[in-house]
Amino acid sequence: MTLFLQAVADGLQMGLLYALVAVGLAIIWGLMEMINFAHGEFMMLGMFGAWGLSAWLGWDPLVTMVPLAVVMYGAGVLVYRGLMQKVQRGEVFTQIFATVGLFFFIQNGVVALFTSDYRFIEGSLLTRLSGANLSLGGIRVGVPLLVGGLIALGLFLLLYLLIDRTDFGLALQATAEDRDAAMLVGIRPQRMYAVAWGLGTALVAVAGVILANFFSVYPQAGLSFTVLAYAIVALGGFGSILGTLLAALLVGVVQSVTAAYLPPAFKDAFVFGSYILIGLFRPQGLFGRF
Amino acid sequence: MAAALVALLYPIPFERSGQIYYETVGFLVLLNAMLGIGWNVIGGWAGQFDFGPSIFFAIGAYTAALLSIHFGWNAWLALLGAVVVSMVICAALTYPVTRLRGHYFAIATVAMWMIAQPIGATWPLINGSQGLFIPVAAGGSFVHGILTMEFPGRGKGLGFYYLSLLLFVVTLLVARTVERSKWGFYFRAVRDDQDGAEAIGIDSRLYKVIARCLMAAIFAAGGTLYGFWALAVFPDQVLEVNWNILPMMAAVVGGLGRLWGPVLGAIVLIPISQLMTATLGAGPLAGRGIDLIIYGAVIMLIAGWRPNGLLSLPWAQWAARFRGRAPAPAGRR
Amino acid sequence: MRILRVIVAVAVLSFVAVQLAPGARAAGPVSEVLIGELLPLTGNFASLGQQYLWAGQTVEDIVNNDYPDLSVPLGPGKGFPGLGGAKMTLVVRDDQSRGDQARTLAEQLITVNKVHWLNGEGTSGNTSIIQPLVDSYGIPMSCHACASPTLTEKGFKWFYRTGPNDSTMVASVFQFLKEWPAHGGPKDLKTIALFTCDNLFCQDNRKIAAELAEKGGYKIVADLTTKTGSTTLASEVQRLQAANPDVLFSVQYPAETTVFQADMKRAGYMPKVIATSNGAYSDQTWLTAQKATAGAAGWLGRDPTAIDLASKKPAWKKVNEIYKKYSRGQDMGELAMREITGLLWMADTINRAKSVEPAALAKAANETDMKPDVMIIDYKGIKFDKNRQNELASGVVTQIGWDDEKHTIWPWDLATQAGFKPIFPSPSWQERETRSKK
User: Fold this and answer.
1) Residue C194, phi-psi category: left (phi > 0), alpha (psi -120 to 50), beta (remainder)
2) Using an 8 Å Cβ cutoff, are A267 and A247 in contact?
3) Which residue(s) pair with C251 in the sheet?
4) pLDDT of the residue at C438
């Protein structure tokens, strides 16, 4: 029983981190329906940013989170304005093609600048706390993961309020649902898309900054997280920010519980298996609106 | 006509000069063009996002390798076996998930790919991640090689070029037949307006399955070819993300939903990447990924410049101008 | 009209054909010896590939430049004296860690660049794809850091490996464990758990370890194959904790090892012995990163050389200095040492062959009998068995001490020289924390 409960607790903690990676994708892909294969590379850039500022200037990632988010917001807007806006004129599939190019460009750019070494953040607040545990009725909860998770929750709350409760959020949703109608009521769709790209990129970079405390930093670090992030956004349902959060928690728990009893090589397979199973009953994801 | 002749004669100069590598590049172009045509069926015509076609490539490679190693089947028979097996598996896997639409369907195909990976890495029948090896053939003539896909020694570059050309032509003919048939019409109807198609009595789920299984068949044939070419089947190599992405990229860069789109795409993409590797990827800056940075930039440029593919360029106009100009001086005077 | 165009096309093609036809290749002495370096420089195995590249550049530097005091093959003097001072030139290709690309580029190196020797691909899986190809062209090929035993067991005539394979490497770890009790080690190590990733390299090790564990009388209490690229291993740690093995045999890459350590620490889990073979243990960046937290103290694993003794050798120090020019300051890791040793052997072979003809090269290679004193690594020498595997490629077992450096603990004669007392049991996380704060 403890094994099971501990696995659930571990899963929930990981789930919050996955949510953090997925939330940026939930905006660009889930809400605006633009495909971005380079999502993980923005996360990796965030990781490298955190590592660089920590190694060279000694800044703690919890601090550098803010300036890096601002910079990456700019990068996201730039990618939309410089590339995706043109690509949008064509087939949806061209977005895949273009972002695969972006993927090659960013990943190998980092290889060229920093080599493929593994790097580790040392002496940050969260890494120093590693091993610190809270015990709740015999179930361990790691403090650094908890801090990361709380940041994720905070971001989710902000984002939820922004998208579901403000005029700006409504404008974003309107653009995603019907561009022409949105234009008629005076929304400039391309501006909305640019903001969405900026937001999504900034958020996933923040995820990278936090994850850099727990994981090794290297140019290929993005992939294993982003594959899960795609599953999470689809599982949660398109356009649902809270759905993404719940799906991320579910994915964390499925991974953790199956790995506790079944061959661990299959843990991601079980995640995707449950996506298909759930999809058979809820083709719009758990909380999808369309 | 001229294209066919070029395709047939392409390897001859390289065979003479011994630069077999260029024949292999031709092989890769044809293999990816073929896979691109396959992906075009589901992606371009039926309009379904399929991000995980490599599982059928892997099923093809493994089935053919198993049939050939354990039962001693001839490669062409093994290819047929691989095609049949992968179509059956495709139908069984795909029918349930056709309930999912658009991006949800796309992630279901990714899911199948993600599930296939640990199976490939741990299943004892296919020797897990330690892979299957197809023994090297002992001897035989060129014709014998074509009949068995086994070329001992140096004839291999040429042999596999023509094998891939053969399979490519078959694929192209099948695709052309399908495009002009009732099925092709139904596929496009499902793509353009699924609800409308259902309203006029087209079973959209059935036709999605048919489209995907046509793709599966082509990928299985490609996988078989790859297996005999590489003489080894490793799960992480046949399930490589490139077999998902490259055929799709070829179709998109050429022109989605057009018969010759993926062919043009493969002809453009593969030589570019090969050229980059051999020039920018080598030399004093080797190992820095410079070639792939530029490759990525080129891809982005093409995508931004021609978001509807290179076939959307005014080729016919250019051709007319070219034809018009050559004999013009005499005529106009 | 159409016929006209066909005729033009044929004319153009035959013109191209004539252009491409090979001129009579200049016989006689060559001015440079071309070495094809086919490596995974981007993609999943990039962190391995770059070390092999730096190793290659180091050897190119040693061969082509005059290092009068460097006692390795071709250290003193410029170029290959056996070939009239010809230079060594690396022709580097990046296969992006992809099998199809590796196979294609190998063909490019052989048929277009006409390299005299192919070195690569660095990972066993992709190497096994290019083996039949290279064999059909009949030029010598080597992969010194590829460790899969099958590579030399399939009867390819042109494939050479100076490094040890996984069987040898894992065997040395188990040999140490077996002999340890007689040398003051613990006598009650009865159970073992295997904890490996799911790719070729890890699974090779897992199978060999499973066999050896059974032979050594261990009870395998857990056998977990994890997913490469795992983002969490918390549940796996729980299972290991429940199985409570005395020895944990772990083969994981640096990224997963980092995840594993964090999850172990969170669960407060530490087995009595952590034994490993390659993976993170041979990755220089991982080792360096452990220094801040003493995270690797007490880990033991196989190494090709007694690094604490070797680093006192002047040749090792000098080669490391050259290596650092290319690696942006990183020290040679054990993979780089294996590769450099292999490439220096290759250079020596080419020099002895006095020719770049494949047959002459093969003859010189097969006649190799290299003595340990010209190596930067502790092989007993280089001499090939009938499968062209170096039968003298031995290894040592090292352990990471509290000073965060590797110390030789097996074989016993070298261990005595090193004078290091093995740490047992593997220290708890609290102990690591207090010790590393000092």
Assistant:
1) beta
2) no
3) C196
4) 59
| Neighbouring C-beta atoms of residue C25, cutoff 10 Å | 7
Query: Does C94 contact A at CB distance below 8 Å?
Result: no
Query: Does residue C20 sit at the B interface (CB-CB below 8 Å)?
Result: yes
pLDDT of residue C5: 55
Q: Which residues pair with B232 in a beta bridge?
A: B133
In sequence order, what are the residues at sequence separation of 6 or more whose Cβ sits closer than 8 angstroms to the Cβ of residue B285?
none
As to burial, measured by CB atoms within 10 angstroms (0-12 exposed, 13-18 middle, 19+ buried), residue C162 is buried
β-partners of residue C407 are C399
Which neighbouring-strand residues pair with A139? A136
Using 50, 70 and 90 to split pLDDT, how confident is the model at C228?
confident
Q: Is the pLDDT of residue C345 over 50?
A: yes
| A94, A273, A280 ranked by CB distance to B252: nearest | A94
- The dihedral over CA atoms of C296, C300, C306, C309, expressed in degrees to the nearest 10, equals 50
pLDDT for the residue numbered A284: 84
pLDDT value at residue C81: 93
pLDDT category, C44, cuts 50, 70, 90?
confident
CA distance B228 to B236: 17
**Does residue B203 come out as left (phi exceeding 0), alpha (psi in the -120 to 50 range) or beta?**
beta
Q: CA of C155, closest CA in chain A: separation in Å?
A: 33
First to last CA, chain C: 88
Low-confidence ranges of chain B (pLDDT < 50): 326-333
Question: What is the ipTM, given to two decimal places?
Answer: 0.91
What is the rounded distance in angstroms from the CA atom of residue C210 to the CA atom of residue C194? Answer: 8
Find the CB nearest B307 among A89, A263, A266: A89
For chain A, say whether B100 makes contact (Cβ under 8 Å): yes
Percentage of chain C with pLDDT > 70? 93
Q: Flag whether residue A268 sits within 8 Å of chain B, measured between CB atoms.
A: yes
On whether the CB atoms of residues B167 and B34 are closer than 8 A, the answer is yes
Dig out the tokens for B39 from the structure: 């992906």
Q: Which helix (H) or strand (E) holds A142?
A: strand A139-142
Q: What Cα–Cα distance (Å) separates residue B120 from each residue in B57, B62, B295, C45, C263?
A: 13, 10, 31, 19, 27
Structure tokens that stand for C383 in this block: 């001499």
Sheet with C247-251: strands ordered across:
C219-226, C191-197, C247-251, C273-277, C300-303, C396-400, C406-410
pLDDT, one tens digit per residue, over A192-234 is 999 999 999 999 999 999 999 989 999 999 988 989 999 999 9
Name the average pLDDT for chain C. 88
In this structure, the dihedral spanned by the alpha carbons of residues A271, A272, A278 and A279, taken in order and rounded to 10 degrees, is: 160
